[in-house]
Structures are given as C-alpha cells and as structure tokens.
Specification:
Layout: H1 18-21, H2 27-34, E1 42-43, H3 55-66, H4 79-93, E2 102-105, H5 107-119, E3 125-130, H6 134-142, E4 146-151, E5 153-154, E6 160-161, H7 164-170, E7 175-181, H8 193-206, E8 209-213, E9 244-249, E10 262-265, H9 271-281, H10 287-299, H11 301-323, E11 328-329, E12 338-343, H12 349-360, E13 362-363, E14 365-366, E15 378-381, H13 386-406
The structure holds pyridoxal-5'-phosphate.
Length: 408
C-alpha cells in the first residue's frame, strides 16, 4: 500500500508516508489558497461564525492563565470540565452520562482522528453517509482505512433522505464502523430518532461501531415534539456499553473555533485507550483553555439562543436572495449553518468557485469537496452578519447574472 506516491514529489526522494502523500488537498483549501491573503474577498467558505467568543468564556480562560495553569494536565481533560460535560449531557438530553464516559480532545477534528486511530486497522473500511466534511474522509485514510460512501438522496422540493437499506447493504466484512454526521455538514440534514434506532440495532447485531458526529446538534431551526431545540442524538437511545462513540465540539455553538476543544462520549471501557492516544498525539489540552469551556457549558445557553437566531436570520436572507435567481435551486436547511445550492449548468463547481473568488471576490466551497452527492452543489456558510452576507450575495448575484447573459 505504500506506493509510488512516496517518491512522487521532487526533493522528497527519502519518502513520505503513503497515507499522507496520497491525501489530496481539499477543494475548499484549493479555492481559498487561489486568492490567499486578498482582503477584499468576502469569506463564506469555512464553517465558522464571524462572532468572537463571548466575553465570559474568554474571561474564564484568562483567569485560569493568570492563576498559573500552565503545567501539563490530565490527558482526558481536567476533572471539572468532564464533570461539567456530564452535567450538560444530562441537562440537554436527559441522559445520565458518568465522567468515565467522557474524554476531552483538541477540537472535534482530533476527536474524529482519535476515534479512527482507536478503531481502525489498515484495510478496514468505514461506511460514511455523504455528502460529508472532507476532513472526516481524510482522517479515515490517514490511518490507512478506506471510506465507503452512502450518498443521501435529494427530496424533490428540498431536503435530503437516507436510504437505510442501502446503508446496511454497503457494510461488508471489512467494515469496522458507520460514520454519521447529523446535523450534517454541508447539507443540514438531520437523522431522525427512528433512523438512529435502526442504525444502532444494526450495529449491535453486526458488531460494528457507530461514530456519530454531533458537532452541530445545538444549531437547529426546528423544535422537537417536546419543544426542545436540539437534534436527536444517538446518546438518547444507546446503552452505556453500546458500540457508540459520539464526537462533539465547542467550536460551533459557542463561537470557539480557534480554541480547539472538543469531546468524545464513549463506553467507559475505552477511557484508558483514549488517554493513551491523547498522550501520544498532544499530551492534553491547555488547562486554562478548559476553564473557558466550563464557562461555556455552565453559562452559555443564552449565547446559543443568540447564535441560532443569528444563523436563522442568515439562512432566511440567503434563501430569499438566492431563490430569487432563476437558475438557482436552494432549500432552507433544517440545521447547521450552511446553504448547499446549485446553479443550472454549473457542473465543475471547483472551477466556478475559483472564478467567483478571483473575479467576484466572494469565497464559497465547491460541492465536490464533500464526496458522493456533493457534486454540482456549492456551500455557503451563513453564520455571519447580514452586512457581510449581503455583500457576498450581491457578488454571487452579479456572477450568476453575468453567467446567464453570456450563456456560459
Ligand atoms: C462535521 C464536522 N465535524 C467536526 C468538525 C470539527 O470542528 P472543530 O475541530 O473545530 O471542533 C467540523 C468543522 O467544520 C465539522 O463540520
């Protein structure tokens, strides 16, 4: 498996890991790098809000730093943060989740990578519901695993649907895990509780792991029957020792992308294994940053309400403006903070997004970055101010009109 790609770069004759050298640059990065450093580009390509982390969270971290929390610390997170995460899980989902089932990680990204390191041997595959954030696929490949995709189907009039039977039929004897990201990036699709139950049942019977990426769980625009505004979680259905690892992050709900704090919820028997992996990868997360995360959990609900309102306004603005363009097909997503739309005749969205960035100064993410089901779509992150979004939308509109009048 360590093939020619080890020697394919001039000057690197001594070789690289085949897994690393074989990873393509993601098309999102390719668009961003094509205009890197241009301050005039309106950036709507990455998945983050334009809000700075709230004051009370920053202040808590600053207090930790001032108090001298500058030493090596607990591999799986300071006890107070794990206790706060346990309480948070109980409060949000009504599920008892003892601290030995929780491990803190360096962001959701590392949560994904640690889970892949823990579960996969070279040649194992992971069945992934797509379109999917490309770093997830890359994490699987990095540990010499193979991604196998099951694409969501488009529903007429908007939205997405998972064919569960197709998901189950894709599993083979090298499958170690099913990866579900719900609410989904880039689609905003949400798996229902019934679907989660069916997947859990299947995983139990077939002795497979479920990796459930729930980093957008708090960013939904629909209420559940009981009035709660949170996406259905596998945690609500699973037994403590089920083959389930839930991946989560502080990045999206509390505007903390730069902090790099996430967490895993897993069977308690995996705790020591994760401690080992954290030791080797990062040796833990700065203790003073974890003080900020505790503040987010304990006092951050009103900020999430504000964030959801802001995203909802952004979603509406983007929907109104883009759906008014004759060539655009767009639906309001139920959750997360992305519009995933298509423009008639635009097939090569990588080339189109590069052109948009260079000529029209607006940064969007090309759909082919997100694997099967993503092609022909374009992702726009609407977690921004109305002002920034309007500026970006003016430019998209100009590009779409120019395209229509040139017939290109
Ligand atoms: C689906 C999904 N999972 C995980 C992450 C990782 O987030 P972070 O590493 O910032 O916590 C992202 C970030 O965009 C994401 O979209």
């Amino acid at each position: 498996m360590l093939t020619d790609s080890r020697f394919s770069s001039p000057g690197l004759g001594a070789g690289l890991s085949g897994a690393i050298a074989g990873l393509p640059e993601t098309p999102i990065a390719e668009v961003a790098m094509s205009v890197f450093g241009d301050p005039d580009v309106v950036p709507l390509w990455f998945g983050e809000s334009d809000l700075v982390t709230p004051d009370f969270i920053r202040a808590a971290a600053a207090r930790g730093l001032q108090a001298g929390e500058t030493f090596y610390t607990w591999q799986r997170g300071v006890p107070e943060l794990r206790a706060a995460l346990s309480a948070y899980t109980g409060r949000i989902y009504g599920v008892e989740c003892p601290v030995d089932r929780i491990s803190v990680t360096t962001g959701g990204m590392q949560a994904i990578l640690l889970a892949c390191q823990l579960l996969l041997d070279p040649g194992d595959n992971v069945v992934i519901v797509s379109p999917i954030w490309p770093n997830i696929t890359s994490a699987v490949k990095l540990v010499h695993g193979e991604p196998k995709y099951v694409a969501l189907d488009r529903i007429a009039g908007g939205g997405w649907k998972l064919d569960l039977q197709r998901l189950f039929d894709t599993v083979d004897d090298r499958t170690r895990a099913i990866f579900v990201n719900s609410p989904g990036n880039p689609t905003g699709w949400m798996m229902t509780s019934d679907e989660q139950g069916a997947v859990l049942d299947f995983a139990r019977r077939r002795r497979l792991w479920i990796m459930a990426d729930e980093v957008y769980a708090r960013l939904t625009y629909v209420r559940r029957a009981d009035g709660r505004q949170v996406a259905p979680s596998f945690l609500e259905l699973a037994r403590p020792d089920d083959p389930l690892i839930v991946l989560n992050s502080f990045s999206k709900p509390w505007a903390m992308t730069g902090w790099r704090i996430g967490w895993l919820t897993h069977p308690s028997a995996l705790g020591d294994q994760f401690a080992k992996l954290v030791q080797i990868n990062t040796s833990g997360l700065p203790a003073f940053l974890q003080r900020g995360a505790i503040a987010a959990l304990e006092k951050g609900d009103s900020f999430i309400i504000e964030m959801v309102e802001r995203c909802q306004a952004g979603r509406e603005l983007v929907f109104q403006r883009l759906s008014a363009l004759p060539a655009v097909t767009i639906a309001r997503p139920e959750a997360a903070f992305y519009a995933f739309f298509s423009i008639d005749g635009v097939k090569d969205t990588l080339a189109f997004c590069k052109k948009l960035a260079k000529n029209y100064k607006v940064g969007l993410a090309p759909g082919e970055a997100f694997g099967p089901g993503g092609q022909g779509n374009i992702r726009l992150c609407f977690a921004s101010s109305a002002e920034r979004l309007s500026k970006g939308l003016d430019r998209i509109e100009a590009a779409a009109k120019a395209r229509a009048s040139s017939g290109a």
